[in-house]
Amino acid sequence: MRAQPPASHFIDGTYRHDDTAPARPDLYPYDGSVIAEIREATEAEIDAAFEAAVAAQKIWGAMAPVERGRVLRRAADLLRERNAALSELETLDTGKPIQETLVADAASGADALEFFGGIAATLNGEMIPLGEDWVYTRREPLGVCVGIGAWNYPIQIACWKAAPALAAGNAMIFKPSEETPLSALKLAEILIEAGAPPGVFNVVQGAGRVGAALVSDPRCAKVSLTGSVPTGRKVYAAAAEGIRHVTMELGGKSPLIVFEDADIENAVSAAINANFYSSGQICSNGTRVYVHKSIHDAFAERLVARVANARLGDPLDPETTIGPMVSETQRDKVLAMIEKGKSEGAALLCGGTSEGPFVAPTVFAGVTDGMSIARDEIFGPVLSLFSFEDEDEVVNRANNTDFGLAAGLFTRDLTRAHRVVARLQAGTCWINTYNLTPVESPFGGNKLSGVGRENARAALDHYTQTKSVYVCMGDTEAPF
Ligand code: TXE
């Protein structure tokens, strides 16, 4: 098969799997062809992964941080050297257009490895003078961290979790989504090549059952999940059993607000990126587009005209801009939500249909705040358009959701931009653009969209623990 790895798991520096374990065909979403056959991790393999990670972490955590940083930066260079092959593999596994994977997947992963490799050596504590006595703090690794990925950005998610975890001296066991098992294995190979000791980064395959086994293992010190809110609740509860650290990167239903003075062309570009890039399968998408009533019709007209230029096709064709959905299941979920939008009375301006594995880029107008397509995450190429009259109204409507992942706004009035963004209940915001996620900037959500942050120095707070050491320079007194 065209993308079959040597074996399904990468544990303690080598590929392995149990030939008797249940196998799952890995399909190319564009034509349904089987590109690999992946076996589910057995209890023995999960145990072996933890044994390897515990042992490796002792060596890796004791290395000079600058040494660890060097390994991560070398891995970043290797990812960049192999970007074309990694991007083709990611397109095969996700169905995302090659014009996207070439710039947004392994490239972003390399950025994370480079960034955290660069700051690993700055992970120091403090010296706190108390007069004669003093305190110093140590920022210590947590131990073995479990990473669990979603299927939309497989290698990026693996790197966004592995880079800070390893920079801080932890070891990691990463479970990709069962939909997209392949690229994390390449990251594991590259980290070994870059000099990471075997066992520092392990990949095991499987669905929720394997994920649950990883999270509830006593050797798991922390879990970082990228996934849906329902899964987040299960994983968070399982982590609570062992009082384990958690990072939750979950779903969203984010607002994009276009004020009357916005540059319409740029705002339409942002709406397209926020709803149709990766066929809309991005958690931080601005799927609720609020446009001031004075420019609503002009905006809608321009948006529909530009959506007509979308090119649905073979994701390996560099001209393709809209790929298939990651699976028939996901396609059917999106189509069901589109039917709901129609039945609840929203006006379909374009799209709303499916061709094989594809869902056409879809725009609904006249959406009211109570409709399902206004409230529920669709995770597909479906944009809901709303009009609004004034600032207070649109801020209240934008915040009227249980999610809180992201938000964007377009205006030329800078005081309004910063005033409004301060009121928006979202962890990741954009002014006059959307969905740009440099690793220098923290990424994550509030409310049901998650806990903790990935990227930036903020991520290191979730992969270290602080030890305070009080130093007595004199005698110790006691009452008797
Ligand atoms: O998620 P699922 P998917 C969200 C996005 C959407 C979802 C789509 O908003 O809601 O992810 O990805 C594993 N114990 N984000 O369908 O089904 C499962 O095997 C342990 C947000 O993959 O929730 C998979 O590996 N693990 C994100 C992973 O959880 C379990 C960006 C996610 O599966 C488990 C991208 C269990 N009980 C997508 N059950 C962001 N906010 O950054 C399942 N899993």
Automatic annotation (TrEMBL):
Keyword vocabulary terms for this entry: Metal-binding, NAD, NADP, Oxidation, Oxidoreductase, Potassium
UniProt xrefs under SUPFAM superfamilies: ALDH-like
Active-site residues, as the UniProt record annotates them: 161 (charge relay system), 249 (proton acceptor), 249, 283 (nucleophile), 454 (charge relay system)
Cofactor note: Binds 2 potassium ions per subunit.
The keyword NADP is annotated on this UniProt entry: yes
Listed EC numbers: 1.2.1.8
Domain of life: Bacteria
Catalytic reaction equation(s): betaine aldehyde + NAD(+) + H2O = glycine betaine + NADH + 2 H(+)
Residues engaged in binding NAD(+): 149-151, 175-178, 251, 283, 377
Pfam family, one: Aldedh
InterPro entries recorded: Ald_DH/histidinol_DH, Ald_DH_C, Ald_DH_CS_CYS, Ald_DH_CS_GLU, Ald_DH_N, Aldehyde_DH_dom, BADH
NCBIfam families on file: BADH, PRK13252.1
Role, per record: Involved in the biosynthesis of the osmoprotectant glycine betaine. Catalyzes the irreversible oxidation of betaine aldehyde to the corresponding acid.
Family: Belongs to the aldehyde dehydrogenase family.
Listed name of the protein: Betaine aldehyde dehydrogenase
Organism: Pseudooceanicola nanhaiensis
